[in-house]
Hints:
With about 260 residues, chain A is an alpha+beta fold.
Amino acid sequence: MKSSSRRSFLKIAGLAALGIGAGPTIKAFGTIGGHGALQPEASFKKGEKAMEAKQWAMVVDTRKIKSEADIRPMVEACHQIHNVPDQPIDRHAIKWIWPEEFHNAFPGLQSQFISEKIENTSFPVLCNHCENPPCVRVCPTKATFKREEDGIVMMDMHRCIGCRFCMAACPFGARSFNFRDPEPFIKNVNKEYPRRMKGVVEKCNFCAERLAVGKLPACVEASNGILTFGNLYDPQSEVRKLIREHNTIRRKIHLGTKPTIYYII
Amino acid sequence: MPKNKKELYNKKGVIAGIVIFAFIAALPFLINLGKAAPAPELVLTSKAKEAKECVRSKEFIKREHMQLLDEWRDTVVRDAKRIYVNPQGKEFNMSLSNTCLDCHSNKTDFCDRCHDYASVSPYCWDCHIDNPKEMKR
């Protein structure tokens, strides 16, 4: 039975070859799990005081703003703790939160004549942490992303390649590009938070690093009650209560980005 | 045409050329002879000495601290988790400047010394504060 023995020999040889090939492949699959797989025994968790929300949101009570001077403490607090540089040339400026006039903040909403109060008031503006963020859609490296845990539109500085698509996509001008090395322009360095470098985009992060240890965003703390922060999807939250009880507007809602910063007018 | 093919033409010149070539090719090795850089001596701060143990075992951290840091930053920024629980159950705030450089506050005599030896220059310090414990550089 020469032919059948050759046949069985080939079968066994084939199986053996398959086995040799499959071994390393299976092993490789075992090691590429990414997180955890590298160190099966170690684990990660949130801090005990970490604040959680499905979607963080902010309400700005513009009735309490008397002048731009009321907004300055928010800007200063934010820019100080995040090592935002004070670039001397305006077109290099880096801004996480800043004052804006009504017709710039809410174009299209202004009638030919508007109340003197509104015309003369400054509005604090920042990243809207949109629920449908266009910046996230255009980012080629997923450096900017909508964080599942809390709805913050985050920047992962480690991935940003400085292509600035996100800046073109953001209708709120909430992103700034580091045209120059920011280091010389940071007056008072906060050593607990990183700086950025030339060639990356940056913006407000809703103080993710503070929420993680149970602190409210720095601007909210410094706002003297003008800003309120909370979970948009908790009907009992402070922000929902304010939205329920007052007339609010949001910036450029016709664009469909679903901003989560509400302004009481 | 030479009759005897085994004859080497321009014998002197060729051999001298080979010797000179060999010498030049060996020059870098000769210059560095006996000068192999000794492995750097790492200094542990008193805080690190007191802690006795790193975040992970010495073997692990020596071999895999780059992967560990990569995992840390992903987890902090992307997964919103900031606490690392090591296999011994000890907890650490996952932060390059605030944790690693808290114990290893002597970055120049620790991280840098080994990195210089291994010829790696992490770009992390363009952003991450490299001297959180000192007032000024």
